[in-house]
Write a structure and sequence with these properties.
By secondary structure, this protein is mainly β. The strands form four sheets. Strands 1-2-3-4 form a four-stranded antiparallel beta sheet, with no helix packed on it. A four-stranded antiparallel beta sheet has the order 5-6-7-8, with no helix packed on it. Helix content is 0%, strand content 49%. The chain is globular and about 45 Å long.
Length: 181
């Protein structure tokens, strides 16, 4: 069964839960947060920049109280401190090509980012210094998301893909379609 938690919350991408707050991105470079118990809006931040052409995409949270938000058109990832709702550009360019889907790998002190591009790359962005390292170049067109199961196997999906893909835990590829459609 499905029911609404909140209607007209403004989310167009995300969400991610940190503590008892659900965060997501909206139109016009907005980041919203809603309390899961009271449904009260607790965050409404605009990431500066042109609003219509530089949309925000994926959002993840770390255990230190930061949100990371991707902006494919600007080749940037922002780091937003939840406590005071301030943000900085965390990673820019340096191999990022339309960063879209993100996966936090705390044990490796990095974020995996998949490009929203032709022949999408999977990049690692160091949480220590935001250095970008390409781990795998695929033949996929414009994937949106990347997740990892308890065995360390990665899965990639997206609006424009012909199915769901799996990549081995070492990211030596190539992606293998495991479900079409």
């Amino acid at each position: 069964n499905q029911s609404y938690f909140l209607q007209n919350g403004g989310f167009v991408d995300g969400p991610v839960v940190y503590g008892d707050i659900v965060y997501g991105v909206g139109n016009n470079r907005k980041v919203f947060g809603y309390n899961l118990i009271t449904k009260e809006k607790v965050m409404d931040v605009t990431i500066g920049g042109a609003t219509s052409s530089y949309y925000l995409s994926s959002i993840i949270a770390d255990s230190a109280g930061y949100l990371y938000i991707s902006c494919p058109p600007k080749h940037e990832i922002y780091k937003l401190r939840i406590s005071d709702q301030t943000y900085t550009v965390f990673a820019r360019q340096n191999g990022l090509n339309r960063p879209n889907g993100m996966l936090l790998e705390r044990d490796r002190n990095r974020i995996l980012v998949i490009d929203d591009a032709t022949n999408a790359k999977i990049n690692a962005v160091s949480l220590s210094d935001s250095a970008v390292t390409t781990l795998l170049t695929t033949t996929l067109y414009s994937p949106d998301g990347i997740v990892k199961d308890k065995f360390g196997v990665y899965y990639i999906g997206g609006y424009y893909l012909s199915g769901l893909y799996r990549i081995d835990s070492l990211l030596v590829g190539p992606p293998v379609m495991i479900h079409s459609g």
